[in-house]
Design a protein that fits this description.
Elements: H1 6-14, E1 23-25, H2 27-36, E2 48-55, E3 58-62, H3 71-80, E4 86-89, H4 95-107, E5 112-115, H5 119-127, E6 133-137, H6 138-147, E7 151-155, E8 183-188, H7 194-208, H8 211-219, E9 223-224, H9 229-250
Parallel strand pairs: 4-5, 4-6
Antiparallel strand pairs: 1-8, 2-8, 2-9, 3-6, 3-7
Helix pairs in contact: 2-9
C-alpha cells in the first residue's frame, strides 16, 4: 500500500524475476497511475502478467430523498436539471470516479463529481444528503441498500453480481457495454521465465476453483475471475485506452 499502490509496485518491479516476489495489482498500479502521476518509480507496462484473480463490483447508490427511485428516472432528472446532481467517489482517478465518468458519457448527463477518501467519508455524506449518489464497492454499499437506508440504482459490472442478483446492472437498463469495476490480478517482475509464469497461472486457477477460497472471496465482496495469461493481457490492453479516454473526459492532469 501507499502512493496509490506505487510503493509496492516499484518494490516488485525491482525484485528478482524468480517467481517468488509478486504483486497483487489493480487498476491503479497497472493502468491508471500512468495518467495521474508525472513520474512513476516503475514501468506499469514492464510487469509479466500471471493471472486475473478477482473483481469487486461497484454499486451505484442514491439518497432516498432524491426525486427519483430508479436509474432511468435519475437519468431523466439529470437531463432536465444539468449540473444539479452530484456523485461521490472514493478518490479522483479511482474506478469509482471512472464509473461516474462512464455513466456521464453513455447517458449524456451532466453530474458533478465529488471525491472523498473512501466509504468512511462518502457514505455519511450520501446519507446526510450532501451528495446525491455514490459509486461504492459492493462490500460496503450493499448493506446500506439492503437495510433500506440507501437506494441501489444498478451494478457497474456487465453481469449481475452473485452477491446481489436482485439488483440490475447499469448495462441491462439501457446502456449496453457499460462494464467497470475494481479488479485484482497477479503480476511478476519483468524477465520472469515463461515456465514460472505458466506454473503460477495454473496455481492461481486451481486455488480459485476451491470452494473454501471462493467463500472467503465472497465474504470480502469479491468474485473470482481467473483465466489464462493471454486473457489477462487482452484485458489490460483494452483497459489502457478506455481509461485514458475517461481520464481525459474528466479533465484530470498528472500531478
Amino acid at each position: 500500500p501507499g502512493a496509490a499502490a506505487g510503493i509496492g509496485s516499484a518494490s516488485v518491479a525491482r525484485a528478482a524475476p524468480d517467481g517468488y516476489t509478486l504483486l497483487m495489482g489493480g487498476p491503479a498500479a497497472i493502468v491508471t497511475n500512468r495518467y495521474l502521476q508525472k513520474r512513476l518509480a516503475y514501468d506499469p507496462d514492464a510487469f509479466a502478467l500471471v493471472s486475473m484473480v478477482a473483481y469487486t463490483p461497484n454499486i451505484l447508490l442514491a439518497n432516498p430523498s432524491q426525486p427519483f427511485k430508479t436509474l432511468p428516472e435519475m437519468v431523466a432528472y439529470a437531463r432536465a436539471n444539468p449540473g444539479k446532481l452530484t456523485y461521490a467517489s472514493f478518490g479522483t482517478g479511482t474506478t469509482s470516479h471512472m464509473a461516474g465518468e462512464m455513466l456521464k458519457s453513455v447517458a449524456g448527463i451532466d453530474i458533478l463529481h465529488v471525491p472523498y477518501k473512501g466509504a468512511g467519508e462518502a457514505i455519511p455524506a450520501l446519507l446526510s444528503g450532501q451528495v446525491s449518489m455514490y459509486f461504492d464497492t459492493i462490500m460496503t454499499g450493499l448493506p446500506q441498500a439492503k437495510s433500506g437506508a440507501l437506494l441501489a440504482l444498478g451494478m457497474s459490472n456487465a453481469k449481475r453480481s452473485a452477491l446481489a442478483p436482485e439488483i440490475p446492472t447499469i448495462a441491462e437498463q439501457g446502456y449496453a457495454g457499460y462494464d467497470i469495476a475494481p479488479w485484482y490480478g497477479l503480476v511478476a517482475p519483468e524477465g520472469t521465465p515463461v515456465a514460472v509464469l505458466d506454473k503460477l497461472n495454473r496455481a492461481v486457477n486451481k486455488v480459485l476453483a476451491d470452494p473454501a477460497l471462493r467463500s472467503k472471496l465472497a465474504e470480502a465482496g469479491a468474485e473470482p475471475r481467473g483465466g489464462s495469461r493471454e486473457e489477462f493481457a487482452a484485458f489490460i490492453k483494452a483497459e489502457i485506452p478506455r481509461t485514458k479516454q475517461l481520464i481525459d473526459q474528466a479533465g484530470i492532469t498528472p500531478q
